[in-house]
Amino acid sequence: MDGASKVPAFQSHLNRLYHVWTTQLKHVDSLLIHTGHVGDKEEVGYMKSYALTCWLFGSEIQDMCLIFKKDVLVVLVRPEHLSQVKENAVQDDSETVRKVDIVSWKDAKEFQTLLAEHMKGVLHGATPEEPREVGCLVKEKHEGSMAEAVKSFVETNNSIRMVNANELLADVFSVKDEPEITKIRRAALLSSAVFKNYLKTELETILDDERKVQHDVLAAEVEKRLIDPSLVNVQKLKKELCDVCYIPIIQSGGDYDLKPSAVSDERILTPGCIVVSLGSRYAYYCSNASRTFLIDASPEQQANYEILLQAFEAAMAMLKPGSTCADVYEAAVSAVAKAKESLVASMTKSVGFMMGIEFREGLYLLNAKTTKKIEKGMCFNLSLGFQGLNDEKMGNYALLVADTVLVTEGQPEILTSHVKKVFKSIAYNTRDENEEEEEEEEAESNRAARNDRRKAMEGMEKADEKRRRATAANSSAGITSEELERRKKHQEELGRKKLEEGLERLRKGELGGAKHSGNEIKTLDQHIAYSNPRNYPSAIRPRQIYVDIDNECVLVPINGVPVPFHISTIKNCSKSDEGSHTYVRINFMVPQKLAGGIVISKKTDGSIFPNENKHFIKELTFRSASAQNLSDTVRKIKELRKRFTSREQEEAEQDAIVEQAALQLDKRGGKIPILLDVSMRPNVATGKNNSGTLEAHLNGFRYRPMRNSPPIDILYANIKIMFFQEAINETIVLVHFHLKDAIMVGKKKTQDVQFYAEVMEAAVKLNDHKRR
Asked: What is the Cα gyration radius of the chain?
């Protein structure tokens, strides 16, 4: 995330850390927390070391080492971050001022000297028999020369006993002050705005128009709006401080995963049950919201959803100071068991977790085992769900509701309350209003089916009788059984030949008259990432998956050897957690086959297999104990796949555009017909910038946008249908062109263009004192 968030409460945060330290781990002599070095094209992810730098200094600072002693905090930082650290480490007089010593270092050798010098006082008098206890984040793995120096210093010094400081920092971050709560409120505001101003209406439009949209494609559009708040009419948030907590999750079609680690797949969005989760991050602080949308819900689905809301209210009522995380979970389970005992088995294993700078704090899970106390100022993602449900008419479905909830002295506050979750707000009915007619039609259909079955039985009996008569006739005509057997074999041979001919036509893509055009189709082997193994990235590490963004390639370890796969060969990838390990499965593009191994030549994502009869790798599965690394890998592969597919589609659209003749400008000196302050659809800009002038020239129109965008030409000869709509009972007057051949507007191909102007009189909007 670009930009730093100012932290005026540095001393109060530092005092809280020392208070928790001396209360919980007073036997620990010092704390040694450090970050690492991350490449420009990589993301930090969620780590407590970086969360600590955000909490103290307002940003994720790389190559920083923090040495907390009993009387002083020593900050070892690179020169380029020195001014930022000094600016944020303000010395206020409101509380006891802790001494802070900020030192810069230039290279690894200088850092090693400084580290040994500042740890010398901590380790004074320590022996291997009586070592000093030093709090570290023992499970975090960092890269970079500084991180390696810290690791070597701690592991080779037998006078140090490492103590895990993970729980200490979790407790330090748990209670938020007012500036932190403000940032979470803003993050929740953005999440709510994306739900209300875009996602919900977009889902309605997709379903109404019966458009085929993939889950991951819609998730990418949602992500754009989480990063740019102006796209959802939220102007007061700074774009550079906005980010996503995770790639939005959209699921439908009967297969649902309610874990926070779920991903949006490439399947088409289907009506029935649609589960959506999204989370925005503002100034590094997280928010989250999840909703389930039910289309033509059955009575059973509605009843189960109402039970889910009752359990949600019961759990939220228990989110109060003095309760434990387990109390919240038990309240939800009790509410479900009281309403419908059988649903308890379908509940998620937890009902949420604490949020803040880190999206999911594992030590504050709302489950049956966590006994952490809840305090005022804590913020939780309260998330309840039922999974693995089945309805006779609607099939498999799941239910999920989640909100960002702040713990207060009284009732907890839902920060994402603007996203309604009552049943009437998430349910849609597309069936006919006259249910009696539907029932009658269904009964009539059942009667017709019974009649058809009866007629089929009678037909089979008549066919048997006919065969018996034919056999008797053949016998009387002198046709022997050998002749009948020969005819049968000949018919089977003819059938086999016809089948082979049909399969051959299917291979060539000629069935139904569908043949390949003369355009050259790019095959998968034309995508070359590396011409030679010497060109592999130097950052490759043994037994790790490496995503090369620049060369659009994924290198995977096979028997210890990195093997590159271009992103065009990868169909999708997914991640799952089993026990203490995380699994990543990468699915590859393979030719489709019929029964018997017959290969069907099929165009896949703009590419054709060069030789379908070779052997193909269908999938690879990798296992790791580090869930964070694999999560980042899956995210990068999906992003790279999305970027590649988008570029291929744009190139295909550009190739399909018919070249138009040049526009002949009217230079005769007279006044050309022109319309001022005209807006265009599809939009070439947003808001007031989507305005310009429409000019009529010798052989076509030219539209000139207000901003510095290229003009758009529409030739008279390319107009197939044109109509004019007056402003009768409408607020706009427009002219619509339906074109013979599509043109490019921005990066999109379109065959319909509208130019319109608003004719509505000026009005006063009393609630915000603005005119329009």
From this structure: 33
The pTM for the full model equals: 0.58
Q: What is the C-alpha separation between 278 and 286, in angstroms, rounded?
A: 11
Task: Tell me how far apart the alpha carbons of residues 50 and 685 are, in angstroms, rounded to a whole number.
Answer: 38
Considering only CA atoms, which of 400, 425, 427, 416 is closest in space to residue 292?
400
Task: Provide the 3-class DSSP secondary structure of residue 556.
Answer: strand
* pLDDT tens for each residue of 44-82: 788 999 999 999 998 999 999 999 999 899 999 999 999
Residue 228: both structure tokens together: 């740019």
Contacts of 709 (CB under 8 A, 6+ apart): 684, 685
Comparing C-alpha atoms, which of 526, 551, 530 is closest to residue 608? 526
Spatial CB neighbours of 429, under 8 Å, sequence gap ≥ 6? 295, 296
Round to whole Å and give the CA distance between 472 and 11. Answer: 107
Farthest-apart Cα atoms in the chain, separation: 120
The Cα–Cα gap between 138 and 191 comes to 34
Q: Are the CB atoms for 219 and 249 separated by under 8 Å?
A: yes
| pLDDT digits 0-9 by tens, 124-145 | 888 889 999 999 999 999 999 9
Best CA proximity match to 256, nearest among 100, 58, 389 = 389
Nearest to 245, CA basis, from 277, 276, 216: 277
What is the C-alpha separation between 578 and 504, in angstroms, rounded?
45
| pLDDT band at 677; cut points 50, 70, 90 | confident
Q: How far apart are CA 657 and CA 650, in angstroms?
A: 11
CB 560 within 8 A of CB 52: no
Pairing relation of β-strands 280-282 and 285-286?
antiparallel
- Report cis status (omega within 30 of 0) of the bond before 564: no
Other C-beta atoms lying within 10 Å of the C-beta of residue 77: 24
268 CB contacts (<8 Å, ≥6 apart)?
Answer: 212, 213, 214, 215, 253
Q: What is the pLDDT of residues 510-529, one digit of tens each?
A: 444 444 444 456 677 777 88
Of 57, 106, 99, 100, which Cα lies nearest the Cα of 77? 106
CA triple 465-468-469, angle to 5 deg: 90
Strand 619-624 and strand 249-251: the pairing is unpaired
| Residue 234 CB partners (closer than 8 Å, separation 6+) | 189, 190, 193
Residue 69 zone, left/alpha/beta (φ > 0; ψ -120 to 50; rest)? beta
The one-letter code for the residue type at 549 is I
Other beta carbons less than 10 A from residue 381's beta carbon: 27
